[in-house]
């Protein structure tokens, strides 16, 4: 199965990986439906009435599951009934070790596509480079202090551009059915070294502070994060401290035939825009 000439439905089409998947697929001439609550194709996990219109004519789906696992299996079943023959499910590296407080939706997505009866592939990336400029750790870095409970365990951060390129390959080419790819960057960096890399690219001092887990939870609560988020991030860092995602993999190389981009390359690329100034 190749999907050229068929529609590819990209869930989370305006998100960190989904928007990049959409861009790569369209550049390759694929017909893409970019779906989200506010995107060009309306899709809302909490409104099943949006599912079938989004699925109409799609032969493949980039599945980015919601945090709530409840609707995922139903959606996948409806997608297969509508003619979808291939899923690429975005999960997270180490998700099988995080327990019920983190990644339940991703785990549900994995289970649903595995049991779908059609072609499926799962991608499990490490923490994205882009979390430093588009998401969780952007504001702390701009403020000059990133404080996390990493336990000194390194992380092989991965570029969302590489993740999107892998996803586009899996969505449009044969030979990947039934596999799980753990996507990492080329080297495992202590978080302190990662922050130092970003500080050099930004041309300004930025500190990394190691926190105990209870200190991190207290800081999150003081910033107004809900308890669900506090528990989820705590579970994610507990899995990281246990070393479940610390070793680089060669899965980007296996799929794309090239090495993944390193954090230094990413930082040099985005710093000139002033994202950490």
Q: Stretches where pLDDT falls below 50 for ≥5 residues?
A: none
- Helical region count? 11
Described by the principal axes of the CA atoms, the overall outline is globular
Please trace the helix and strand order, writing H or E for each element. Answer: EHEEHEHEHEHEHEHEHHHH
Helix content: 25-40%
Distance between the termini: 47 Å
Q: Radius of gyration over alpha carbons? A: 19 Å
Number of E-type strands? 9
Structure description:
Helix 1 (18-27) packs across helix 6 (160-172). The radius of gyration is 19 Å and the shape is globular. It is built from 11 helices and 9 strands. A 7-stranded parallel sheet has the order 3-2-1-4-5-6-8, sandwiched between helices. A two-stranded parallel ribbon has the order 7-9. The relative contact order is 0.14. By secondary structure, it is of the alpha/beta class. It starts with 6 loop residues before the first strand and ends in a 7-residue tail after the last helix. Helix 4 links the parallel strand 5 (86-90) and strand 6 (119-125). The mean pLDDT is 96. Helix content is 38%, strand content 16%.
What labels would you give this structure?
alpha/beta; seven-stranded parallel β-sheet; 11 helices; 9 strands; 277 residues; two-stranded parallel ribbon; 16% strand
Q: What is this structure, in a nutshell?
A:
By secondary structure, the chain is α/β, with parallel strands linked by helices. It contains eleven helices and nine strands. Helix 3 (72-81) links the parallel strand 4 and strand 5.
List the helices and strands and how they pair.
Layout lengths: L6 E5 L6 H10 L3 E6 L4 E2 L8 H5 L2 E7 L7 H10 L4 E5 L13 H11 L4 E7 L12 H6 L1 E4 L11 H13 L6 E5 L7 H12 L4 E4 L2 H10 L4 H15 L9 H6 L6 H8 L7
Helix pairs in contact: 1-6, 3-4, 7-11, 8-9
């Amino acid at each position: 199965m190749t999907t050229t000439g068929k529609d590819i439905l990209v869930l989370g089409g305006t998100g960190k990986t989904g928007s990049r998947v959409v861009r790569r697929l369209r550049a390759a001439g694929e017909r893409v439906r970019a779906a989200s609550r506010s995107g060009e194709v309306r899709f809302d996990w909490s409104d099943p009435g949006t599912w079938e219109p989004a699925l109409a004519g799609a032969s493949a789906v980039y599945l980015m599951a919601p945090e709530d696992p409840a609707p995922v299996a139903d959606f996948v079943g409806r997608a297969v009934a509508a003619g979808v023959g291939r899923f690429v499910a975005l999960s997270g590296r180490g998700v099988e070790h995080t327990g019920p407080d983190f990644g339940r939706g991703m785990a549900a997505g994995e289970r649903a596509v595995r049991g779908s009866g059609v072609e499926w592939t799962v991608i499990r990336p490490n923490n994205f480079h882009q979390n430093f400029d588009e998401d969780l750790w952007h504001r702390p870095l701009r403020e000059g202090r990133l404080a996390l409970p990493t336990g000194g365990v390194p992380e092989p951060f991965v570029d969302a551009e590489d993740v999107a390129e892998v996803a586009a390959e899996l969505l449009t080419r044969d030979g990947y059915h039934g596999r799980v790819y753990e996507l990492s960057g080329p080297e495992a960096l202590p978080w302190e070294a990662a922050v130092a890399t970003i500080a050099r690219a930004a041309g300004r001092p930025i500190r990394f502070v190691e926190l105990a887990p209870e200190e991190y939870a207290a800081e999150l609560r003081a910033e107004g994060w809900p308890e669900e988020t506090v528990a989820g991030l705590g579970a994610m860092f507990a899995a990281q401290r246990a070393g479940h995602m610390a070793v680089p993999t060669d899965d980007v190389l296996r799929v794309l035939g090239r090495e993944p981009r390193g954090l230094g390359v990413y930082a040099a690329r985005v710093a000139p825009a002033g994202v950490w100034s």
